[in-house]
Design brief:
Blueprint (H helix, E strand, L loop, with lengths): L6 H18 L4 H13 L1 H13 L13 H17 L9 H17 L2 H9 L10
Helix pairs in contact: 1-2, 4-5
Length: about 130
């Protein structure tokens, strides 16, 4: 599908889609502008974003120290379930926010992966007794 479009058309579509994703996720224009700036500055995350935008699945061709967008989503889902257990429902009915935050996390990981890798290595959801 992308072979039929120019890079300019893809970029314009990506910008429109990013605005819509941010809006559906409940984020404001300031967040959206920063997200787009960071997204368009990242060759790796941008390529994953474009793939997702067209195919609605992750290519997982780009990774940061072995961590892909699918890994980030799994980590987030695990924490989403833990938050439900604690009575926090911010993303309960907002899959767009979870998707957006996966891309945002990967963009942030490019700058400094260590805090994320540490959290992913230590934190899990409520998969064992007496965690909370």
């Amino acid at each position: 599908m992308t072979e039929q479009l120019t890079q300019e058309q893809i970029a314009a579509y990506a910008e429109t889609w990013a605005d819509a994703l941010c809006e559906c996720a409940g984020e404001d224009k300031t967040f959206a502008e920063q997200f787009k700036k960071d997204l368009f500055s990242s060759k790796g995350v941008y390529s994953e974003y474009i793939y997702y935008m067209f195919y609605q699945k992750f290519s997982c061709a780009y990774a940061i120290q072995g961590v892909t967008l699918a890994d980030i989503m799994i980590f987030q889902i695990d924490h989403f379930r833990a938050n439900l257990d604690k009575g926090e429902y911010e993303m309960r009915e907002n899959g767009d926010k979870m998707l957006l935050m996966a891309f945002r996390t990967m963009l942030d990981m490019e700058k400094d992966p260590n805090p994320f890798l540490e959290r992913m290595g230590k934190e899990t959801g409520t998969d064992y007794p007496n965690k909370y």
